[in-house]
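Fold these two proteins, one after the other.
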Amino acid sequence: MENTVDSERITRPMTDTEAKAEAQRIIEENFRPEVPIVRHFPTSFRDDSPLPAYGNTPPVHQDDRRIVPAWAAGIAVASIGVGAGITGMGCGAWLVLQGLASVTLTSVLMGTLPFAALAMVATAVGGAISKARAATSQTSNVYTGAVTYTATHNTSHGMFVRTSNDIRP
């Protein structure tokens, strides 16, 4: 059967009998069973070659010609690296959360130790700065003027306290 293009068919429409014959040809060509419907696959293998009188069976060479593309090898290596990294991060988080979950005096002290040390250093630095400033000011405050003493009398009593101040000169 030749695969030639019939230019006459392209330019003129087919008659009903030609169209029916062409459709039948296409159906038979594309839908004929070339392989049997029921396929039989071997489910076991028996090697009938003779075994040696003693010792192990000699190895049989099995060709392995798989070729792995570079992109597939790169993805495999990257996925191993990402998996190892995520596993390490998960183990670290687990250790931190295990440490936080064990509420003992030691764990609380170890958890707050960095903050206490930082607060102690800040307090020491602030105290040193305060002492340094106080040492430089040698002035004394002397107030002059009339001093008036005023006595106050406070009374507070009751459940809802109301304070009244009596000022006496």
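Now the second one:
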Amino acid sequence: MTMRPPRPAPAGDLRPAGRRRAAVPTGVLAALALAACTARPVLAPAPPAHVVHRSPAAGTARPAPPRPAADGAGTATSALRRLVDDGAPGAASLTTRAGASSAARFRAAGVADLHSGRRIGRQDHFRAGSLTKTLVATVILQLVAEGRLTLHDSAAAHLPPGLPTRGNGTGSDLRRVTVHQLLDHTSGLFNYTADPRLSRQLSGTGFSPHRYDSHTPGELLRIALDHPPVAAPGARYAYSNTNYLVLGLVIEAVTGHPYATEIRRRLLVPAGLGHTSFPGTDPALPEPHGRGYSRIGHRRVDATSLNPSRAGAAGEMVTTLGDLNRFFSALLGGKFLAPRQMAEIRSEKGTGGAYGLGLYATGLPCGVTVWGHDGDINGSFARTAGTADGRHVVSYRINTDHLADPAHGTDVLTAEFCPRRPGDRPGTGPPSRP
């Protein structure tokens, strides 16, 4: 799930972290997803997480990150190195053009495993957090195109039987929230990952004893509805993982199948995304994979294994850089949605330019605008962005959930989409539009 804020985000969430329509200055951005304190899914009691202390004096052997060989694109490699210098154990990116994986460029810096010194591999699986949201939104818009629901329908009208639709005296009421407001985070629903008790279990000292806990969507929805809304429906943008938790339930009610089943049938199989999965309650990552690290106080904790049911449709997806590029190339290229729905998924009118219906735009310093999403969850942060036609796409990831300087993440995009010419200042390029 993405749990952090480049837009207004509640503490402990699974959201995108680094979106901006205007040119992004190379030194500031916001924190990672899910809100002020990126909340990620946690698991229940099981083998204790391996703890890696940050202090060299503590005897933690952090292998010196090997520098990648020159790849002919020093600025892109340098941007990844900056993420490692900021404290990420490892960073990697994959660039594709015109959907041609044969011409893809993979770069890596740092390590995938602090103990073995293993490097991040191109085929490594990782948790993608709120990048899940873009796939959920795509299926919802397909259902709209099929006439099976409308964007103006009430969320309560499309929920499986037995689920709550309003809180007990809190004012939260799904009958007043539309599908459109769920998609663009203007519902005002409280972000369930910001619940104080749950947030302590998702990260911080509660992580180890609760990392393998299982949670149902109905349970998480009740937690959200037990809080007053943060705004009236449609009043303003306020990122909330609850919105996409509900959208996953809407897909189930409308189709009769779990949201993950519909995503596989409608998106993964047609696009050949054979390395993307929705693990449910399975705490293990598919092979190959490296390790994922979270910071808890002054310690760095191995968070590779966890129960992702706390993320669900808001951020449980596991994938690879290659699959992310293939999906966004197909989506932006118009292969999944009709023109009307493509216009809707990109429309940020209801949020003042902060977020579309599962996508957001980022304006780069050279004038290029790219479209994509990001996501974080314990031990992992990833982001994908592409040109409007999907012919040029880059995904990058780090094996920790916190971007110490989000601007350095945007630098990865700038290096890819703003090619430098002799005389250009670093981080700039010819003004152009995708």
